[in-house]
Amino acid sequence: MTVLIIIIVVIVLVVLYAGFLYNGLVRLNQRTDEAWSDITVQLKRRYDLIPNLVSTVKGYASHEKTVFEDVTKARTNALSAQGKGIAETAKAENQFQQTMKSLFAVAENYPDLKATQNFQELQAELTDTEDKIQASRRFYNGMVRDFNTKRKVFPTNVFAGMLGFRRDKEFFELDEAQAAAIQNPVEVKF
What we know:
Elements (H helix, E strand, L loop, with lengths): L1 H59 L4 H17 L4 H23 L2 H5 L1 H36 L3 H5 L15 H8 L7
Helix pairs in contact: 1-2, 1-5, 2-3
């Protein structure tokens, strides 16, 4: 009889522990999804600001047509990458950042443009948005790190697959080409 009680107690403890592990994984999974949602909100905010910035700069630098076309194309690509996964979004986002650097390099060559209040406000909004995007990325990557670590450590790794957590979350990171491009300054030719 005591052996049966011990077996039942052990089974109950294992079930309770599995429930504890499952709840922890679900909590981290939800926080990671929330962090990804925060990134997409900030990206949308940035994409909404870009047309205003482009039209402001266009008035001063009408002969820089290719820069504006590149920014518009990169914005469209980045918007269409939303919902296609983290890797696709990150790739489009990295390309978009590179074209934005070109736009700001063009703006640097027009002192009258830099002095207008409209441009300064847009640039301040974009800077604020970029800071929020970076913070959101760091938070998201921290949550991914925590989730992946929890999923892989013993004894959670024993139960994770059985509880439906079979794959790691993807980090939001730069690809090799983008990382190399960031090392070099943007070159604007007239």
